[in-house]
Amino acid sequence: MKASHTRGAVSVRFDDPGLVSHAGLVAVMRLAEDAGLSDLAGELVRLGGSVGANAGAKISTIVAGMAAGADSISDLDLVRHGGMAGLFTGIRAPSTVGTFLRWFSMGHVAQLEKLSARLLARLAELTPLLAGADRLGLLDLDSKISQVYGRGKDGAAFGYTGVLGLNTLAATLTTAAGRPVIVATRLRGGNADTRRAVSSLARRALGTARAAGATGPLLARGDSGFYVGELITMLAREGAWFSITAPQHSAIREAIDAITEHAWQQHTYRDPVLDPHTGQLIHTAQIAETSHTAFTNPTVNPGQKTTARLLVRRTRITTRDEQGELFPAWRYHAVFTNLPPATTRPATTRPATTRPATTRPDTAGFDTATAWRLHDQRSGAIEHVFAELAAGPLAHFPSGLFAANAAWLSLAALTHNLLRATACLAGPTHARTRLTTLRRRLITIAARVTRTARHITLRLPQDWPWATDFTQLFTTIHAPPHPA
Questions:
Q1: Label partner for 353 (CA 20 to 30 A): which of 321, 343, 453, 456?
Q2: Torsion sign across C-alpha atoms 10, 15, 20, 22
Q3: Which is nearest to 231 in space by CA: 271, 255, 198, 267?
Q4: How far apart are CA 397 and CA 390, in angstroms?
Q5: Which residues make beta-bridge pairs with 138?
Q6: How many C-beta atoms lie closer than 10 Å to residue 260's C-beta?
Q7: Could you give the CA distance from residue 474 to residue 184 in angstroms, rounded to a whole number?
């Protein structure tokens, strides 16, 4: 592919008032309007004073900019070009929005979290965003250090990763038929302990998931940083299941050592997993389970004593020196969970001439292999969400004020859920695609705005590869309302 003209035969002019660069925002913001984003923001977010006026318009401007790919306050200006003013009303300037964000306190951020939860519930009613949530919902907890530059940012500190940053704590909800949505976020200082405030966030995440339609069982998953008695007992008390990686302290090692050799069973991975110690892919391992009672110290963990299943995976250490392997050596990984074990129904008595009956597992429970697979899938869900946020609005935190950055995080989560709901209406291909791909194919599309007989038409590029999905998305969202 090469240019079809000489250098002197082409020029540029930014003078067409009828062009827009992000035509897909028409469908995205129409869905946000149907879900009541602006009205909810005006009702729930009350900052006071002239700065806090018209919160609905200002929040809608931020969400539209984030949906289009803005990762800073100044980037929000991309919603104020060409024919955008003819497609949307109430667009606010980046300077106005920046002042609005800097007015936030942590109490106002809590109002944004409530707005995000209410909007998620409405999006779940309008779209198949949480299809299958009546069967099993997977609630994943994780934290991530986002690097920042300059010590002037409130809360920036050196954490366990050794970089200067801010700590994002998040909870996502995944169903069998959908992609993860964000049900709770919290911004913390860069040196925050992983366990800090995780119980309150998990409780809020459970409430948001239930309100959004997750009426089936909920399984909360986390790594060893969330092996906390307060969190685990809270989850059990709220009627949720938990599956938390157990740290290799002495009590866990004793429980593992007590597993008899014949209890181990072969486990083959459908998708190999990476061994963080050796950097090699693990294709097969051995798994077993036992029972373990955790948090038994009444002084350190009052009222948090918990007995549950301990799932254990072991992989062979194959490194040898010049003496060879003297005896088998294993690396262990343990998971503490209260998933109900699979039971077997008694065999049915049949005549001797028929085929012997066999027991079959009770579908209400989870055998060792199934419970282990459920936990193994944890990082694949929430890590993808963190990657999508980092490739979009959380490429960096835009303000020097901690509360403003916390508000930016909350709005980034809200925008993520809005885009996931939009993708559900664009057909099965885009329902599970990454948001960066969705943005490139269905949002960042150049169009010319034309008007005929009080009707607006968006003139889009001919032979656009994803024209069919865009048309489906557009017509679904702009369908006439159902009669009352």
A1: 343
A2: positive
A3: 198
A4: 10
A5: 174, 219
A6: 8
A7: 29
In 325-461, alpha helices (H): 368-376, 378-390, 402-424, 428-431, 435-438
Instruction: For strands 164-175 and 157-158, give the pairing.
Output: antiparallel
Residue type for 194, please?
Answer: T
For the chain, what is the largest distance between any 2 Cα atoms, rounded to a whole number of angstroms?
93
> What is the per-residue DSSP string for 26-48?
HHHHHHHHHTTHHHHHHHH----
Helices then strands, counting H and E runs in the chain, come out as 15, 13
CA atoms of 177 and 439, how far apart (whole Å) = 21
Other CB atoms closer than 10 Å to residue 213's CB: what's the count?
A: 18
pLDDT at 348: 39
Residues in the chain: 484
pLDDT in tens, 294-344: 999 999 999 999 999 999 999 887 665 565 555 567 889 999 999 999 874
Count of Cβ atoms closer than 10 Å to residue 315 Cβ: 20
Residues 6+ apart with CB under 8 A from 448: 16, 18, 19, 20, 83, 458, 459
d(CA 183, CA 130) in angstroms, rounded, equals 12
Q: Rounded CA gap, 92 and 85, in Å? A: 11
Q: If DSSP codes are grouped into helix, strand and coil, which group holds residue 366?
A: strand
Residues (pLDDT < 70) of the chain are 276-278, 318-328, 344-364, 481-484
Contacts of 454 (CB under 8 A, 6+ apart): none
Number of neighbouring beta carbons within 10 Å of residue 177: 15
Residue 344 is predicted with a pLDDT of: 47
Report d(CA 388, CA 336) in Å as an integer. 29
The H or E element spanning position 59 is helix 55-67
Cβ–Cβ contacts within 10 Å for residue 2, how many? 3
Check residue 254 and give its pLDDT. Answer: 95
Give the per-residue pLDDT at 335. Answer: 96
Phi and psi dihedrals of 27, rounded to 5? -70, -40
Which residues is 273 bridged to in the sheet? 282
Please give the pLDDT value at position 4. Answer: 87
d(CA 208, CA 245): 24
For residues 484 and 480, give the distance between their C-alpha atoms in angstroms, rounded to a whole number.
12
pTM confidence score: 0.91
CA distance 476 to 481: 11
- Nearest CA to 199 out of 236, 161, 162, 251 is that of 236
Rounded-to-integer distance, Cα 167 and Cα 145, Å: 5
| Nearest of 224, 209, 45 to residue 142 by alpha carbon | 224
